[in-house]
Amino acid sequence: MKLETDEKVINYIRKRITDAGNIVAVLGIEMLTEGGGYDLDSNEETYRAEELYGYTPEDMLSTSFFNAKVERFYRFYKNEILTMEVNATPAYDALLRLQAQGKLSAVISQNFHGIPQGIHFRNVIELNGNMNSNKCSRCNKVFDIQYMKNASGIPLCDNCKTAVRPNIRLIGERCDAKIMTEAANACEAAEVLLIMGKNMYHDRIEYNTDPKHKQLKILFSKEKHLTDRRVDFVIHDEIQLFLPAIV
How far apart are CA 101 and CA 18, in angstroms? Predict the structure, then answer.
């Protein structure tokens, strides 16, 4: 399939990636949707969820909702989040090639579905946690994702009979300062920053760097009219088509 990005832009990005020794990939919503997931922040999904559950995904994935309406939280979470299958795409293979070449220094994941099975990155920074890990808020006992899926109704700790909490950052919670600093430092040091989709639920990492640091910032987005002055290029091609073509 022919890429719609201008050939001159493709060649320029290809050369910068070839010459770069430090590349950082930020996995956003576009990587999730290309792998078979869906954007709960889209207008269509927001409307569908509100019709089905009486609340928007942004409402239900919040700390206040979990604390006040845990049964409704888990009805949504188990139906919509735990059943969402996200698979590897050729874009992940391209990133693994960059890692094998010693160029990929970090992968920053904004999605809480984790890295697809069979894909192994050496340095993964999970900004919003990982749904594969869960724990009791009272005794800190850890439970895997199968325990959450198999539980009838609210997943309860088998010790405390307290609701088990997914190890994800809910809306209204601050990102762990140590993790945020690690991500910011990785972005700052990168020669090429690959931003693979807009951030989920309007969370943002700032990509500011020293003006003397000639960093190439590339944002991938399906939104045809999206522009962003903080980046050098906005690519509307699918990541799974574009990235293998330039690596």
Answer: 10
pTM: 0.90
Strand pairing category for 142-144 and 233-235: unpaired
Q: Render pLDDT for 98-154 as a digit per residue (tens, 0 to 9).
A: 999 999 999 999 998 989 989 999 999 999 999 999 999 899 999 999 999 999 999
* pLDDT tens, residue by residue, 182-213: 999 999 999 999 999 875 444 455 555 555 56
Cα distance between the two ends of the chain:
17
Compute the half-sphere exposure of residue 233: CA atoms within 13 Å on the CB side of its CA. 21
The answer to whether the CB of 39 falls within 8 A of the CB of 122 is no
d(CA 129, CA 150): 21
